[in-house]
Amino acid sequence: MHIATIVRIWGFFSIGFSLTMLVPLAISLGYNDGEARHFVYAMGLIMLPGMLFWVVGRHNTDELATRDGFMVVALFWLGISMLAAWPFVLGAHLNFVDALFEAVSAVTTTGATVIVGLDDLPPSVLFYRQQLQWLGGMGMIVLAVAVLPMLGIGGMQLYRAEAPGPFKEEKMTPRLAQTARLVWMIYLAMTVANALAYWLAGMTPFDAISHSLSTVSTGGFSTHDASLGYFNSPTIEAIAIVFMLFGAINFSVHYLAWHNRSLAEYLRNTEVRTFLIFVLVITVIVGLILRTSGEYHTLPPSLRNATFEVVSVVTSTGFGTVDFSHWPTFLPTLLIFISFVGGCGGSTAGGMKVMRVHLLIRQGLREITRLIHPKAVVPVKIGGRVMDDRTMDAVWGFLSVYVATFVVLMLLMMFSGLDQVSAFSAIATCMNNLGPGLGRVASTFTDVSDMGKIIAVIAMLLGRLEIFTILVLLTPEFWR
Fold first, then answer.
1. Is the pTM of this model over 0.85?
2. Which ranges constitute the DSSP H helices of 85-204?
Protein backbone atom coordinates (compact mmCIF):
# COMPACT_ATOMS: atom_id res chain seq x y z
CA MET A 1 0.00 0.00 0.00
CA HIS A 2 1.34 3.44 -0.98
CA ILE A 3 0.87 5.31 2.30
CA ALA A 4 2.71 8.45 1.17
CA THR A 5 0.53 8.76 -1.92
CA ILE A 6 -2.63 8.26 0.13
CA VAL A 7 -1.51 10.94 2.60
CA ARG A 8 -0.73 13.32 -0.26
CA ILE A 9 -4.12 12.84 -1.92
CA TRP A 10 -5.93 13.18 1.39
CA GLY A 11 -4.11 16.46 1.98
CA PHE A 12 -5.10 17.70 -1.46
CA PHE A 13 -8.75 16.82 -0.83
CA SER A 14 -8.74 18.53 2.58
CA ILE A 15 -7.26 21.73 1.20
CA GLY A 16 -9.79 21.74 -1.64
CA PHE A 17 -12.70 21.13 0.71
CA SER A 18 -11.57 23.90 3.08
CA LEU A 19 -11.69 26.38 0.20
CA THR A 20 -15.40 25.64 -0.32
CA MET A 21 -15.96 27.39 3.02
CA LEU A 22 -15.32 30.68 1.20
CA VAL A 23 -18.83 30.60 -0.28
CA PRO A 24 -20.81 30.45 3.01
CA LEU A 25 -18.23 32.87 4.46
CA ALA A 26 -19.07 35.38 1.71
CA ILE A 27 -22.79 34.85 2.31
CA SER A 28 -22.29 35.43 6.03
CA LEU A 29 -20.50 38.70 5.33
CA GLY A 30 -23.16 39.73 2.81
CA TYR A 31 -26.05 39.03 5.18
CA ASN A 32 -24.06 40.10 8.25
CA ASP A 33 -25.45 37.12 10.15
CA GLY A 34 -22.54 36.89 12.60
CA GLU A 35 -21.29 33.47 11.42
CA ALA A 36 -18.25 34.62 9.44
CA ARG A 37 -15.74 33.89 12.20
CA HIS A 38 -17.12 30.35 12.59
CA PHE A 39 -16.43 29.58 8.93
CA VAL A 40 -12.96 31.08 9.24
CA TYR A 41 -12.27 28.80 12.23
CA ALA A 42 -13.67 25.78 10.37
CA MET A 43 -11.59 26.60 7.28
CA GLY A 44 -8.46 26.68 9.41
CA LEU A 45 -9.31 23.40 11.16
CA ILE A 46 -9.71 21.67 7.80
CA MET A 47 -6.90 23.34 5.85
CA LEU A 48 -4.07 22.98 8.38
CA PRO A 49 -4.03 19.16 8.56
CA GLY A 50 -4.52 19.09 4.79
CA MET A 51 -1.44 21.24 4.24
CA LEU A 52 0.53 19.06 6.66
CA PHE A 53 -0.45 15.88 4.79
CA TRP A 54 0.35 17.53 1.47
CA VAL A 55 3.83 18.52 2.62
CA VAL A 56 4.53 15.03 4.00
CA GLY A 57 3.66 13.28 0.75
CA ARG A 58 4.47 15.95 -1.83
CA HIS A 59 7.49 14.14 -3.29
CA ASN A 60 5.73 10.82 -3.82
CA THR A 61 4.46 10.06 -7.34
CA ASP A 62 3.52 6.37 -7.08
CA GLU A 63 0.45 5.16 -8.98
CA LEU A 64 -2.58 4.09 -6.96
CA ALA A 65 -3.31 0.38 -6.67
CA THR A 66 -6.81 -1.02 -6.22
CA ARG A 67 -6.42 -1.20 -2.44
CA ASP A 68 -5.20 2.40 -2.34
CA GLY A 69 -8.32 3.62 -4.12
CA PHE A 70 -10.64 2.04 -1.57
CA MET A 71 -8.55 3.40 1.31
CA VAL A 72 -8.52 6.95 -0.07
CA VAL A 73 -12.28 6.98 -0.64
CA ALA A 74 -13.14 5.52 2.76
CA LEU A 75 -10.78 7.87 4.62
CA PHE A 76 -11.99 10.81 2.58
CA TRP A 77 -15.69 10.33 3.33
CA LEU A 78 -15.09 9.55 6.99
CA GLY A 79 -12.60 12.37 7.45
CA ILE A 80 -14.46 15.03 5.50
CA SER A 81 -17.68 14.16 7.31
CA MET A 82 -16.01 14.77 10.66
CA LEU A 83 -14.40 18.00 9.49
CA ALA A 84 -17.61 19.20 7.85
CA ALA A 85 -19.39 18.89 11.19
CA TRP A 86 -17.54 21.80 12.77
CA PRO A 87 -19.59 24.63 11.21
CA PHE A 88 -22.70 22.97 12.63
CA VAL A 89 -21.08 22.83 16.07
CA LEU A 90 -20.01 26.48 15.86
CA GLY A 91 -22.88 28.00 13.88
CA ALA A 92 -25.93 25.84 14.63
CA HIS A 93 -24.78 25.10 18.21
CA LEU A 94 -25.22 21.34 17.88
CA ASN A 95 -23.34 18.81 19.95
CA PHE A 96 -20.74 16.87 17.97
CA VAL A 97 -22.87 13.74 17.45
CA ASP A 98 -25.75 15.81 16.06
CA ALA A 99 -23.33 17.88 13.97
CA LEU A 100 -21.70 14.72 12.59
CA PHE A 101 -25.12 13.30 11.74
CA GLU A 102 -26.08 16.52 9.91
CA ALA A 103 -22.77 16.63 8.02
CA VAL A 104 -22.91 12.98 6.95
CA SER A 105 -26.55 13.36 5.95
CA ALA A 106 -25.52 16.31 3.78
CA VAL A 107 -22.46 14.86 2.02
CA THR A 108 -24.20 11.52 1.40
CA THR A 109 -27.26 13.44 0.08
CA THR A 110 -29.51 11.60 2.53
CA GLY A 111 -31.42 14.67 3.68
CA ALA A 112 -32.30 13.46 7.17
CA THR A 113 -31.87 16.16 9.79
CA VAL A 114 -31.70 16.75 13.52
CA ILE A 115 -32.34 20.49 13.20
CA VAL A 116 -35.74 21.94 14.04
CA GLY A 117 -36.29 25.61 13.22
CA LEU A 118 -34.58 25.95 9.85
CA ASP A 119 -36.44 29.18 9.15
CA ASP A 120 -34.57 30.80 12.04
CA LEU A 121 -31.05 29.63 11.15
CA PRO A 122 -28.50 32.13 9.74
CA PRO A 123 -28.48 32.20 5.90
CA SER A 124 -24.82 31.14 5.74
CA VAL A 125 -25.45 27.98 7.78
CA LEU A 126 -28.49 27.15 5.66
CA PHE A 127 -26.49 27.58 2.48
CA TYR A 128 -23.64 25.50 3.87
CA ARG A 129 -26.02 22.55 4.31
CA GLN A 130 -27.17 22.87 0.71
CA GLN A 131 -23.62 23.23 -0.60
CA LEU A 132 -22.51 20.06 1.16
CA GLN A 133 -25.28 18.14 -0.56
CA TRP A 134 -24.34 19.55 -3.95
CA LEU A 135 -20.69 18.59 -3.50
CA GLY A 136 -21.61 15.13 -2.26
CA GLY A 137 -24.17 14.55 -5.03
CA MET A 138 -21.76 13.84 -7.83
CA GLY A 139 -18.97 13.01 -5.46
CA MET A 140 -16.15 15.30 -4.46
CA ILE A 141 -13.72 12.55 -5.40
CA VAL A 142 -15.05 12.39 -8.96
CA LEU A 143 -14.46 16.16 -9.05
CA ALA A 144 -10.91 15.66 -7.84
CA VAL A 145 -10.31 12.96 -10.45
CA ALA A 146 -10.76 15.67 -13.07
CA VAL A 147 -7.59 17.36 -11.84
CA LEU A 148 -5.62 14.35 -10.57
CA PRO A 149 -3.58 14.10 -13.78
CA MET A 150 -2.02 17.43 -12.82
CA LEU A 151 -0.79 15.71 -9.67
CA GLY A 152 0.73 12.84 -11.61
CA ILE A 153 -1.71 10.36 -10.03
CA GLY A 154 -3.97 7.91 -11.87
CA GLY A 155 -7.58 8.27 -10.76
CA MET A 156 -9.33 5.16 -12.06
CA GLN A 157 -9.16 3.39 -8.70
CA LEU A 158 -10.81 6.37 -6.98
CA TYR A 159 -13.51 6.51 -9.62
CA ARG A 160 -14.28 2.79 -9.32
CA ALA A 161 -14.47 2.98 -5.53
CA GLU A 162 -16.69 6.06 -5.43
CA ALA A 163 -18.91 5.98 -8.53
CA PRO A 164 -22.42 4.52 -7.95
CA GLY A 165 -23.98 1.72 -9.95
CA PRO A 166 -23.16 -1.79 -11.19
CA PHE A 167 -21.08 -0.78 -14.24
CA LYS A 168 -18.22 1.13 -12.67
CA GLU A 169 -15.74 0.37 -15.47
CA GLU A 170 -17.65 2.21 -18.16
CA LYS A 171 -16.65 5.73 -19.10
CA MET A 172 -18.21 8.28 -21.45
CA THR A 173 -14.83 9.24 -22.89
CA PRO A 174 -11.51 7.39 -23.28
CA ARG A 175 -9.75 9.51 -20.65
CA LEU A 176 -11.04 9.36 -17.07
CA ALA A 177 -10.22 12.99 -16.26
CA GLN A 178 -12.15 14.10 -19.32
CA THR A 179 -15.09 11.97 -18.20
CA ALA A 180 -15.07 13.53 -14.72
CA ARG A 181 -14.89 17.05 -16.10
CA LEU A 182 -17.72 16.33 -18.51
CA VAL A 183 -19.90 14.92 -15.73
CA TRP A 184 -19.34 18.01 -13.63
CA MET A 185 -20.09 20.34 -16.56
CA ILE A 186 -23.44 18.60 -17.07
CA TYR A 187 -24.06 18.67 -13.31
CA LEU A 188 -23.29 22.39 -13.12
CA ALA A 189 -25.41 23.22 -16.16
CA MET A 190 -28.38 21.35 -14.67
CA THR A 191 -27.95 23.20 -11.38
CA VAL A 192 -27.88 26.62 -13.06
CA ALA A 193 -30.95 25.78 -15.16
CA ASN A 194 -32.78 24.55 -12.05
CA ALA A 195 -31.94 27.71 -10.08
CA LEU A 196 -33.17 29.94 -12.90
CA ALA A 197 -36.39 27.95 -13.18
CA TYR A 198 -37.04 28.21 -9.43
CA TRP A 199 -36.36 31.95 -9.50
CA LEU A 200 -38.71 32.53 -12.43
CA ALA A 201 -41.35 30.47 -10.60
CA GLY A 202 -41.32 32.86 -7.63
CA MET A 203 -38.53 31.81 -5.26
CA THR A 204 -36.13 34.41 -3.92
CA PRO A 205 -32.63 34.20 -5.46
CA PHE A 206 -31.29 32.73 -2.21
CA ASP A 207 -33.98 30.03 -2.01
CA ALA A 208 -33.72 29.30 -5.74
CA ILE A 209 -29.97 28.69 -5.63
CA SER A 210 -30.15 26.80 -2.34
CA HIS A 211 -32.89 24.45 -3.48
CA SER A 212 -31.28 23.86 -6.87
CA LEU A 213 -28.20 22.55 -5.06
CA SER A 214 -30.26 19.96 -3.19
CA THR A 215 -32.59 19.12 -6.09
CA VAL A 216 -30.04 18.18 -8.74
CA SER A 217 -28.00 16.34 -6.10
CA THR A 218 -31.21 14.51 -5.04
CA GLY A 219 -30.32 15.52 -1.49
CA GLY A 220 -33.56 17.05 -0.22
CA PHE A 221 -32.34 19.63 2.29
CA SER A 222 -34.42 22.79 2.35
CA THR A 223 -34.10 26.24 3.88
CA HIS A 224 -37.55 25.84 5.45
CA ASP A 225 -38.98 23.36 7.93
CA ALA A 226 -41.95 22.79 5.62
CA SER A 227 -39.60 21.87 2.75
CA LEU A 228 -41.06 22.71 -0.69
CA GLY A 229 -44.52 22.69 0.89
CA TYR A 230 -43.54 26.13 2.24
CA PHE A 231 -44.07 27.64 -1.22
CA ASN A 232 -47.41 25.90 -1.98
CA SER A 233 -46.76 26.31 -5.69
CA PRO A 234 -47.69 23.72 -8.35
CA THR A 235 -45.15 25.35 -10.69
CA ILE A 236 -42.28 24.98 -8.23
CA GLU A 237 -43.29 21.38 -7.54
CA ALA A 238 -43.35 20.61 -11.28
CA ILE A 239 -39.87 22.10 -11.71
CA ALA A 240 -38.62 20.04 -8.77
CA ILE A 241 -40.09 16.85 -10.26
CA VAL A 242 -38.32 17.41 -13.58
CA PHE A 243 -34.91 18.08 -12.04
CA MET A 244 -35.22 15.32 -9.45
CA LEU A 245 -35.78 12.91 -12.33
CA PHE A 246 -32.83 14.41 -14.22
CA GLY A 247 -30.62 13.91 -11.16
CA ALA A 248 -31.71 10.27 -10.85
CA ILE A 249 -30.92 9.42 -14.49
CA ASN A 250 -27.51 8.08 -15.51
CA PHE A 251 -25.32 11.04 -16.45
CA SER A 252 -23.89 9.14 -19.40
CA VAL A 253 -27.38 9.22 -20.90
CA HIS A 254 -27.51 12.98 -20.36
CA TYR A 255 -24.23 13.18 -22.23
CA LEU A 256 -25.56 11.08 -25.13
CA ALA A 257 -28.72 13.19 -25.34
CA TRP A 258 -26.60 16.35 -25.44
CA HIS A 259 -23.97 14.96 -27.80
CA ASN A 260 -26.53 13.59 -30.29
CA ARG A 261 -28.97 16.47 -29.77
CA SER A 262 -31.78 13.96 -29.25
CA LEU A 263 -34.16 13.39 -26.34
CA ALA A 264 -34.85 9.95 -27.79
CA GLU A 265 -31.64 8.76 -26.09
CA TYR A 266 -33.54 8.66 -22.80
CA LEU A 267 -36.10 6.19 -24.17
CA ARG A 268 -33.47 4.10 -25.98
CA ASN A 269 -31.71 3.35 -22.71
CA THR A 270 -33.19 0.26 -21.03
CA GLU A 271 -32.49 1.39 -17.48
CA VAL A 272 -33.93 4.88 -17.97
CA ARG A 273 -36.99 3.49 -19.74
CA THR A 274 -37.58 1.00 -16.94
CA PHE A 275 -37.10 3.72 -14.34
CA LEU A 276 -39.63 6.10 -15.94
CA ILE A 277 -42.22 3.34 -16.42
CA PHE A 278 -41.77 2.28 -12.79
CA VAL A 279 -42.29 5.87 -11.58
CA LEU A 280 -45.39 6.26 -13.77
CA VAL A 281 -46.99 3.00 -12.57
CA ILE A 282 -46.38 3.71 -8.87
CA THR A 283 -47.66 7.28 -9.28
CA VAL A 284 -50.92 6.09 -10.83
CA ILE A 285 -51.40 3.47 -8.09
CA VAL A 286 -50.75 5.96 -5.28
CA GLY A 287 -52.91 8.66 -6.89
CA LEU A 288 -55.89 6.35 -7.33
CA ILE A 289 -55.66 5.04 -3.76
CA LEU A 290 -55.48 8.58 -2.39
CA ARG A 291 -58.62 9.47 -4.36
CA THR A 292 -60.64 6.33 -3.58
CA SER A 293 -59.70 6.37 0.12
CA GLY A 294 -61.05 9.90 0.50
CA GLU A 295 -57.70 11.45 1.45
CA TYR A 296 -58.40 14.02 -1.29
CA HIS A 297 -61.87 14.72 -2.66
CA THR A 298 -60.88 15.11 -6.31
CA LEU A 299 -58.41 13.47 -8.66
CA PRO A 300 -56.14 16.47 -9.48
CA PRO A 301 -54.80 17.01 -5.93
CA SER A 302 -54.48 13.25 -5.53
CA LEU A 303 -52.29 12.96 -8.63
CA ARG A 304 -50.38 16.15 -7.82
CA ASN A 305 -49.31 14.97 -4.38
CA ALA A 306 -48.81 11.38 -5.52
CA THR A 307 -46.53 12.44 -8.37
CA PHE A 308 -44.39 14.70 -6.20
CA GLU A 309 -43.98 12.29 -3.31
CA VAL A 310 -43.33 9.23 -5.49
CA VAL A 311 -40.66 11.06 -7.52
CA SER A 312 -39.15 12.54 -4.37
CA VAL A 313 -38.91 9.14 -2.69
CA VAL A 314 -37.81 6.97 -5.61
CA THR A 315 -35.07 9.45 -6.55
CA SER A 316 -34.03 9.46 -2.86
CA THR A 317 -34.39 13.25 -2.74
CA GLY A 318 -36.76 13.46 0.21
CA PHE A 319 -38.43 16.81 -0.45
CA GLY A 320 -41.93 17.02 0.97
CA THR A 321 -45.12 18.92 0.25
CA VAL A 322 -47.23 16.75 2.56
CA ASP A 323 -46.46 14.27 5.33
CA PHE A 324 -46.88 10.94 3.52
CA SER A 325 -46.40 9.03 6.79
CA HIS A 326 -50.04 9.84 7.55
CA TRP A 327 -51.42 8.67 4.22
CA PRO A 328 -54.01 5.84 4.39
CA THR A 329 -53.64 2.06 4.08
CA PHE A 330 -50.25 0.73 2.94
CA LEU A 331 -49.05 3.85 1.08
CA PRO A 332 -46.40 5.00 3.61
CA THR A 333 -44.84 1.52 3.63
CA LEU A 334 -45.03 1.33 -0.18
CA LEU A 335 -43.11 4.58 -0.51
CA ILE A 336 -40.39 3.35 1.83
CA PHE A 337 -40.11 0.14 -0.18
CA ILE A 338 -39.74 1.93 -3.54
CA SER A 339 -36.79 3.83 -2.06
CA PHE A 340 -34.91 0.50 -2.14
CA VAL A 341 -35.12 0.60 -5.95
CA GLY A 342 -33.75 4.14 -6.16
CA GLY A 343 -32.56 5.81 -9.34
CA CYS A 344 -30.30 4.78 -12.20
CA GLY A 345 -26.67 3.79 -11.87
CA GLY A 346 -24.26 6.64 -12.56
CA SER A 347 -26.68 9.19 -11.08
CA THR A 348 -26.86 11.13 -7.83
CA ALA A 349 -29.75 9.01 -6.52
CA GLY A 350 -29.51 6.41 -3.78
CA GLY A 351 -31.07 2.98 -3.39
CA MET A 352 -29.89 -0.29 -4.92
CA LYS A 353 -30.26 1.22 -8.42
CA VAL A 354 -32.77 0.33 -11.11
CA MET A 355 -30.32 -1.71 -13.18
CA ARG A 356 -29.56 -4.07 -10.31
CA VAL A 357 -33.26 -4.61 -9.64
CA HIS A 358 -33.87 -5.10 -13.36
CA LEU A 359 -31.10 -7.70 -13.57
CA LEU A 360 -32.44 -9.52 -10.51
CA ILE A 361 -35.90 -9.72 -12.10
CA ARG A 362 -34.43 -10.97 -15.38
CA GLN A 363 -32.42 -13.56 -13.49
CA GLY A 364 -35.56 -14.72 -11.67
CA LEU A 365 -37.46 -15.07 -14.95
CA ARG A 366 -34.55 -17.04 -16.40
CA GLU A 367 -34.67 -19.50 -13.51
CA ILE A 368 -38.39 -20.02 -14.09
CA THR A 369 -37.68 -20.76 -17.76
CA ARG A 370 -34.94 -23.21 -16.75
CA LEU A 371 -37.41 -25.09 -14.55
CA ILE A 372 -39.57 -25.68 -17.62
CA HIS A 373 -36.64 -26.25 -20.02
CA PRO A 374 -33.72 -27.59 -17.93
CA LYS A 375 -31.33 -27.86 -20.89
CA ALA A 376 -32.10 -24.46 -22.40
CA VAL A 377 -29.40 -21.81 -22.64
CA VAL A 378 -31.13 -18.58 -21.61
CA PRO A 379 -28.79 -15.59 -21.40
CA VAL A 380 -29.74 -12.48 -19.44
CA LYS A 381 -29.85 -9.55 -21.85
CA ILE A 382 -30.17 -5.83 -21.26
CA GLY A 383 -30.74 -3.74 -24.36
CA GLY A 384 -29.45 -6.55 -26.58
CA ARG A 385 -26.30 -6.92 -24.51
CA VAL A 386 -25.65 -10.28 -22.85
CA MET A 387 -24.72 -9.95 -19.19
CA ASP A 388 -21.67 -11.97 -18.24
CA ASP A 389 -21.53 -14.17 -15.14
CA ARG A 390 -19.19 -11.72 -13.38
CA THR A 391 -21.81 -8.97 -13.55
CA MET A 392 -24.60 -11.25 -12.35
CA ASP A 393 -22.45 -12.55 -9.49
CA ALA A 394 -21.69 -8.97 -8.46
CA VAL A 395 -25.39 -8.08 -8.44
CA TRP A 396 -26.32 -11.10 -6.31
CA GLY A 397 -23.37 -10.47 -4.03
CA PHE A 398 -24.43 -6.86 -3.55
CA LEU A 399 -28.01 -7.89 -2.73
CA SER A 400 -26.95 -10.49 -0.18
CA VAL A 401 -24.54 -8.13 1.58
CA TYR A 402 -27.09 -5.31 1.43
CA VAL A 403 -29.80 -7.41 3.08
CA ALA A 404 -27.45 -8.76 5.76
CA THR A 405 -26.14 -5.29 6.55
CA PHE A 406 -29.69 -3.91 6.68
CA VAL A 407 -30.81 -6.57 9.16
CA VAL A 408 -27.83 -6.05 11.46
CA LEU A 409 -28.20 -2.26 11.47
CA MET A 410 -31.95 -2.48 12.03
CA LEU A 411 -31.49 -4.74 15.06
CA LEU A 412 -28.87 -2.34 16.43
CA MET A 413 -31.24 0.57 15.87
CA MET A 414 -33.96 -1.27 17.81
CA PHE A 415 -31.40 -1.91 20.57
CA SER A 416 -30.79 1.85 20.70
CA GLY A 417 -34.42 2.41 21.68
CA LEU A 418 -36.53 2.70 18.53
CA ASP A 419 -39.64 0.64 17.87
CA GLN A 420 -39.73 -1.81 14.94
CA VAL A 421 -41.40 0.53 12.44
CA SER A 422 -39.16 3.47 13.29
CA ALA A 423 -36.02 1.30 13.25
CA PHE A 424 -36.92 -0.27 9.90
CA SER A 425 -37.66 3.05 8.23
CA ALA A 426 -34.65 4.75 9.85
CA ILE A 427 -32.20 2.23 8.35
CA ALA A 428 -34.10 2.17 5.05
CA THR A 429 -34.03 5.94 4.72
CA CYS A 430 -30.33 6.12 5.69
CA MET A 431 -29.01 3.25 3.57
CA ASN A 432 -31.08 4.41 0.60
CA ASN A 433 -30.03 8.04 1.26
CA LEU A 434 -33.67 9.12 1.29
CA GLY A 435 -34.27 11.33 4.36
CA PRO A 436 -37.85 11.08 5.68
CA GLY A 437 -39.02 7.89 7.35
CA LEU A 438 -41.92 6.62 9.41
CA GLY A 439 -42.79 6.66 13.10
CA ARG A 440 -40.36 8.64 15.25
CA VAL A 441 -38.16 9.52 12.27
CA ALA A 442 -40.97 10.71 9.99
CA SER A 443 -39.70 14.29 9.99
CA THR A 444 -36.45 14.49 11.98
CA PHE A 445 -34.00 12.31 13.90
CA THR A 446 -34.05 14.72 16.85
CA ASP A 447 -35.57 12.18 19.25
CA VAL A 448 -33.16 9.38 18.30
CA SER A 449 -30.48 8.58 20.88
CA ASP A 450 -26.81 9.32 20.25
CA MET A 451 -26.20 5.61 19.70
CA GLY A 452 -28.99 5.53 17.14
CA LYS A 453 -27.56 8.55 15.33
CA ILE A 454 -24.12 6.92 15.11
CA ILE A 455 -25.75 3.79 13.65
CA ALA A 456 -27.58 6.03 11.18
CA VAL A 457 -24.28 7.68 10.22
CA ILE A 458 -22.78 4.26 9.47
CA ALA A 459 -25.85 3.34 7.42
CA MET A 460 -25.66 6.55 5.39
CA LEU A 461 -21.98 6.07 4.57
CA LEU A 462 -22.50 2.42 3.66
CA GLY A 463 -25.40 3.36 1.40
CA ARG A 464 -23.57 6.22 -0.30
CA LEU A 465 -20.47 4.11 -1.00
CA GLU A 466 -22.55 1.03 -1.86
CA ILE A 467 -21.36 -1.04 1.12
CA PHE A 468 -18.39 -2.86 -0.44
CA THR A 469 -16.12 0.19 -0.44
CA ILE A 470 -16.33 0.24 3.36
CA LEU A 471 -16.67 -3.48 4.12
CA VAL A 472 -13.66 -4.40 1.99
CA LEU A 473 -11.49 -2.58 4.52
CA LEU A 474 -12.62 -5.06 7.19
CA THR A 475 -11.44 -8.16 5.32
CA PRO A 476 -8.08 -9.77 6.15
CA GLU A 477 -7.32 -10.14 2.43
CA PHE A 478 -7.31 -6.37 2.01
CA TRP A 479 -4.40 -5.95 4.43
CA ARG A 480 -2.26 -8.82 3.12
1. yes
2. 86-91, 96-107, 123-138, 140-145, 156-162, 176-200
